[in-house]
Amino acid sequence: MAHGPTTPKRTPATRIAAVVLLLAGPALPAAAQERPDRGREAPVVRRIDAYQTPPSGGWSPLAVSLLPASSVPPEDHDIGLLRINLLAGRHRSLAGLDVGLVANDLTAGLTGVQVAGFVNTVSHSEAGLQIAGLLNGSRHEFTGLQLGLVLNRTDGEHAGAQIGLVNRAAALSGLQVGFLNSVERGQGVQIGVFNFATVFEGLQIGLSNVNRESSVPFFPLINFAF
Fold first, then answer.
1. Which site from 9, 112, 216, 225 is most exposed, i.e. has the minimal number of CB atoms within 10 Å?
2. For the chain, what are the domain ranges?
3. What is the pTM of this model?
4. 17-68 pLDDT, tens per residue?
């Protein structure tokens, strides 16, 4: 008697992986669906430079904010030394130290350090350090270290390190350490429970290691491609 196809049983490990990937949401790269030819040379990590920053309204060595709308000086200024955000602040760029109780945001670049109780976000960073209790994010490339309790995310190339529960970069040259690490393409080292990459040259250490376009696309504990 013919039977229809059976549904494979899910083990506890696969159930945990499914839940983690669901919580990560956009952390899994959409570009993973575009599979390059396996025979071609591994692509070079690209910098994402096609972005626009708002014009500068002036420069100030110091800034104080309760909320972005009440910033002194106004939001369109570049800050050259220190910004203190009693709750949250937003300015164009900062070269120096950025401290906020809740959130720090820069619509252009960071050269320096951001420390926030919850969230740090920038457009890009030439040399930066982000430390947050919840989330660090860069809308374009980031050079430096992101240290976040829950999520570190760079939507362009990340040159440096990401350390947190979930780490996500469109492109990586460096190190990721966390529970879930995800990159579209890059080179370096991933250390975590779940490591995911589309095209990656380097070392993956974790319970589950996925490198979709390598000769060994999946291997537990240790996986590498050079």
1. 9
2. 58-158, 165-226
3. 0.79
4. 444 444 444 444 443 444 444 444 444 444 444 567 788 999 999 999 999 9
